[in-house]
């Protein structure tokens, strides 16, 4: 239980660092958070694959939403800033840990995504001065729908890599 609490607290510290620091050297705190995370993780390979997959998929999703005009930053861009991309890797670090309880049944992940996803984006937008050109209510509704789908998919990534890790362990033990 203490590791789950620490995992949640480290995620919150990382979230605050990203939205307040922007693309500055303060983002090195995220590297420290990930180092602590990997120190406690039993499978570096499976967890690393999960973090990289979620980082890539999430960054692509947010960049797509950026290019659709859902978000607007102070300077024109086609890819999201590093601080926003790092939030995805931080989220991935919680999937097998403090957010594992939301994996089953699937609707828990959908409900959490539909509520917490838009609230996180809204709070981050307020702090980091990200504009929502579609308006607040339409953007939050759109994000709720997206995140109701995204969270179960992310848990699917976590399950896939966890199963690969467990299979590799069984193979090593039987050899």
UniProtKB/TrEMBL annotation:
User: What are the TM regions of this chain, as residue ranges?
Assistant: 12-38, 50-70, 82-102, 140-161
Superkingdom of the organism of origin: Bacteria
InterPro entries recorded: DUF2878
Sorted keywords for this record are: Membrane, Transmembrane, Transmembrane helix
Record carries keyword Ubl conjugation? no
Q: What is the name of this protein? A: DUF2878 domain-containing protein
Where does this protein come from, organism-wise?
Pseudomonas segetis
Q: Write the lineage as a comma-separated list.
A: Bacteria, Pseudomonadati, Pseudomonadota, Gammaproteobacteria, Pseudomonadales
């Amino acid at each position: 239980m203490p590791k789950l609490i620490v995992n949640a607290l480290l995620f919150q510290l990382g979230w605050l660092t990203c939205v307040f620091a922007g693309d500055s050297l303060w983002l090195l705190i995220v590297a420290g958070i990930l180092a602590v995370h990997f120190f406690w993780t039993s499978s570096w390979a499976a967890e690393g694959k999960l973090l990289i997959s979620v980082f890539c998929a999430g960054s692509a999703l947010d960049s797509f939403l950026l290019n659709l005009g859902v978000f607007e930053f102070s300077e024109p861009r086609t890819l999201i800033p590093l601080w926003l991309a790092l939030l995805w890797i931080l989220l991935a670090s919680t999937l097998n840990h403090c957010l594992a309880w939301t994996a089953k049944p699937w609707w828990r992940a959908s409900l959490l995504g539909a509520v917490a996803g838009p609230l996180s984006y809204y709070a981050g937008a307020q702090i980091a001065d990200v504009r929502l050109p579609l308006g607040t209510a339409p953007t939050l509704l759109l994000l709720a729908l997206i995140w109701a789908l995204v969270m179960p998919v992310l848990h699917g990534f976590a399950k896939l890599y966890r199963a690969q890790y467990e299979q590799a362990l069984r193979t090593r033990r039987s050899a």
